[in-house]
């Protein structure tokens, strides 16, 4: 587990597991030392997967050195790997990477590449990450860690044995609004969480003509639950501490077959389809209740919630008040405190800006009201990874990305939800 950042320790009374690093706190942050001054090196970067999230990684490595002061070694943007040659080439040109390759092994074998993001279908993570770690590359792998718990555990074992760094991208903890809520829980503004309510509703799967892709294949639990439930579950522990049990697991498939695409499918996109259909074998919808040390919560995810393209919505109800975040308005959070003004009390909207995590000194215009979206989260995630690879100590870095062990823990919870769902919602202890 990653140790807590000593600059901003979490008070024991909040119930938040101190193993989670607290949020980046502007007040205690000072510019990191440049550790590679004398021994100047260049970090070679590659990304495997140029699809929806792949492009977010590819762009993020471009932006990462521009966040905060210039403390990273020079970066060299070496390669994009994608089996779709046309997409790989166009993406390399768009983002200024030197070349594209169709076989990820060329990236593993290239000695000029140090850092590789793996942003391809979950079922491919194990094979590719294994090859990269064996070649000594530092690996940032997308969530969920893998398609099965067994292969995720194998990846964690490989990461333990590796001489290089292996991390998993759980991007939303970089969201300033959610990081601010975590700070308010830690510093007593909100205090201990009494009740967590989280939902992640998406509509990328609501069109029955949406083409079959890797997202719709695999056992129950590998659909919406693994795809967006991995984020929601991780964030629940980020805010409430370790989960102890799950119950009421429910998994459902609303659209049971999908047409096969006639060409490549990228991300959630539509494509020309054939008249041939393939069964959808995993979940469009999932929900469960969670027991934490100090509170309970409900979590609900969907990929068929028409009209909600990306609706991550989180509420915490706490000892001293409450707060909520909605991805539709990512530069705002709502805050309520019991003791504000008796008789005139209620939720207020807080516009996120220089007083909140990640923003000050980080962005070109780091002032309130400029907005802060999901793409910025990838840039801060990449920056944290590069700082770790560059050997900048934790005290002078953004909080580290999650370890593969945390990725396994996340998947153990998802597996427990699937187990609960398979047995009429029984309680499963973690
Ligand atoms: N953190 C986030 O917010 C977030 C968002 C979306 C997806 N993801 C994760 O990112 C990963 C990729 O998802 P996506 O939506 O970008 O998928 P995608 O389908 O859009 O893209 C996958 C790409 O991988 C390529 N590909 C397939 N096999 C390959 C191989 N053997 N070698 C190289 N390239 C190959 C495909 O051509 C495609 O371009 C998944 O693990 C997903 O869960 C994370």
From TrEMBL:
Domain called Gfo/Idh/MocA-like oxidoreductase N-terminal: residue spans: 43-168
Keywords noted in UniProt: NAD, Oxidoreductase
A GO molecular-function descriptor: nucleotide binding
Keyword NAD appears in the UniProt entry: yes
InterPro entries: Gfo/Idh/MocA-like_OxRdtase_N, Gfo/Idh/MocA_oxidrdct_glycsds, GFO_IDH_MocA-like_dom, NAD(P)-bd_dom_sf
Gene3D superfamilies: Dihydrodipicolinate Reductase, domain 2 (3.30.360.10), NAD(P)-binding Rossmann-like Domain (3.40.50.720)
KW Cell cycle (keyword) present: no
Pfam families: GFO_IDH_MocA (PF01408), GFO_IDH_MocA_C3 (PF22725)
GFO/IDH/MocA-like oxidoreductase domain sequence ranges: 179-323
Full protein name: Gfo/Idh/MocA family oxidoreductase
Species: Kocuria coralli
Organismal lineage: Bacteria, Bacillati, Actinomycetota, Actinomycetes, Micrococcales
């Amino acid at each position: 587990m990653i140790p807590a950042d000593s600059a901003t320790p979490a008070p024991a009374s909040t119930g938040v597991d101190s193993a989670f690093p607290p949020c980046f706190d502007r007040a205690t942050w000072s510019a990191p030392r440049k550790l590679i001054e004398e021994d100047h090196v260049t970090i070679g970067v590659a990304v495997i997967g140029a699809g929806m999230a792949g492009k977010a990684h590819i762009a993020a490595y471009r932006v990462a050195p521009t966040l905060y002061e210039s403390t990273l070694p020079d970066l060299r943007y070496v390669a994009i790997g994608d089996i779709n040659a046309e997409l790989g080439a166009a993406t390399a040109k768009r983002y200024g990477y030197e070349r594209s390759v169709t076989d990820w092994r060329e990236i593993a074998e290239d000695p000029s590449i140090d850092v590789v993001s793996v942003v391809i279908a979950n079922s491919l993570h194990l094979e590719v990450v294994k090859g990269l770690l064996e070649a000594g590359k530092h690996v940032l792998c997308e969530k969920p860690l893998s398609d099965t718990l067994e292969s995720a555990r194998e990846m964690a074992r490989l990461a333990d044995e590796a001489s290089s760094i292996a991390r998993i991208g759980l991007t939303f903890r970089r969201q300033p609004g959610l990081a601010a809520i975590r700070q308010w829980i830690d510093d007593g503004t909100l205090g201990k969480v009494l009740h967590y309510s989280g939902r992640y509703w998406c509509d990328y799967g609501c069109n029955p003509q949406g083409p079959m892709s890797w997202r719709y294949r695999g056992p129950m639990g590998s659909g919406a639950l693994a795809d967006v439930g991995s984020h929601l579950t991780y964030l629940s522990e980020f805010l409430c501490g370790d989960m102890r049990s799950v119950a009421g697991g429910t998994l459902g498939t609303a659209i049971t077959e999908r047409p096969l695409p006639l060409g490549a499918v990228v991300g959630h996109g539509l494509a020309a389809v054939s008249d041939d259909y393939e069964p959808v074998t995993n979940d469009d919808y999932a929900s469960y209740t969670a027991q934490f040390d100090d509170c309970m919560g409900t979590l609900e995810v969907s990929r068929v919630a028409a009209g909600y393209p990306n609706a991550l919505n989180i509420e915490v109800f706490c000892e001293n008040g409450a707060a909520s975040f909605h991805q539709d308005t990512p530069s705002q959070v709502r805050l309520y405190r019991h003791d504000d003004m008796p008789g005139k009390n209620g939720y207020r909207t807080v516009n996120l800006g220089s007083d909140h995590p990640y923003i000050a000194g980080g962005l070109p215009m780091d002032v309130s009201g400029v907005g802060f979206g999901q793409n910025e989260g990838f840039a801060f995630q990449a920056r944290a990874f590069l700082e770790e690879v560059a050997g900048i100590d934790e005290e002078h870095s953004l909080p580290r990305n999650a370890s593969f062990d945390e990725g396994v823990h996340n998947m153990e919870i998802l597996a427990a939800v699937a187990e609960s769902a398979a047995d009429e919602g029984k309680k499963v202890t973690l």
